[in-house]
Amino acid sequence: MLQSVQKGFLVGLKTTWTLGKVIFPVTLIVSLLQYTPVLPWVISLITPLMNIIGLSGDAAIPIVLGNLLNLYAGIGAILTLDLTVKEVFIIAVMLSFSHNLLIESGVALKVGVKLWVILAVRIGLAFFSALIINLVWKGGSEMARYGFIPQNETELTGWGAILLDGLQKAALGIFQLALIVIPLMIAIQILKDLKWLAVFSKWMAPVTRMLGMKENTSTTLAAGLLFGLAFGAGVMIQAVKEDGVSKKDVTLAFIFLVACHAVVEDTLIFIPLGIPVLPLLLIRLGVAIVLTLAVAYFWRRADLSKRKEATYEH
């Protein structure tokens, strides 16, 4: 048991270092950009798109902040705006598909998934889902009532204070990551050594097979579903190394997870916004299953045609 704890602790430290090299600079840079003309410029660029998906120009603020930072930043911005229930629901669905793009895309690259795949899927799902909801849902015109009032943050003055605030946020991000990843890696290592993960893989096998993946992808899938892409990445990186998960399977797992990850946390944090969260969860889960099945199907077709061509050549 002690050996398992030691090994898990070392793996956790190594993983925190690997992910920290992505999270620290990204958090620092985006924190600094908030005090420059860059973010307002990005917001002004996407404001014309808002009307197409049934949103006011103000909605660009939480969408940009949520995508560049995280869901909490997006939700914080929503709480400062007067929006209808329909608008808040559309933003929530968009942000549940597409948030924390810089860090989570960096994580995807570490695992070995192509950047364009992740960005195309996440941004595409966000805008397509918003378009559909806007066309289909005719209700939700009443003003949203938020469950709590955001605290007023003290305004920072001077680049010294801004830089210090950015460094603190980045360091806190790494600390929070370590608090989750290290105990998680220790627990995973103990489960591996006790052979419980093998049992779990067999239990998950029908689900992973249905989605077009092999059994050894189950740890990666479960980690992302429960802990999210950024926090679950530690388990994913380790699973890809140790379980021999193929490039195809890890790509399919990530396609599923970009649509539906951190299902408990990412659903519950939207409750204070006064929107129906069960439909939000069901939309994410449904889209993730359909999208992964479709990609797996076309991938199989492409592989079969390649094999046939190779056979004819011989």
Automatic annotation (TrEMBL):
Nucleoside transporter/FeoB GTPase Gate domain span: 17-99, 175-264
Transmembrane regions: 22-47, 59-81, 88-109, 115-137, 170-191, 220-240, 252-275, 281-299
InterPro entries registered for this protein in UniProt: Gate_dom
Keywords, ordered alphabetically: Membrane, Transmembrane, Transmembrane helix
Keyword Ubl conjugation tagged: no
Claim: Aminoacyl-tRNA synthetase is one of the keywords in the record: no
Pfam families to which the protein is assigned, alphabetical: Gate
Protein name: Nucleoside transporter/FeoB GTPase Gate domain-containing protein
Gene source species: Cytobacillus gottheilii
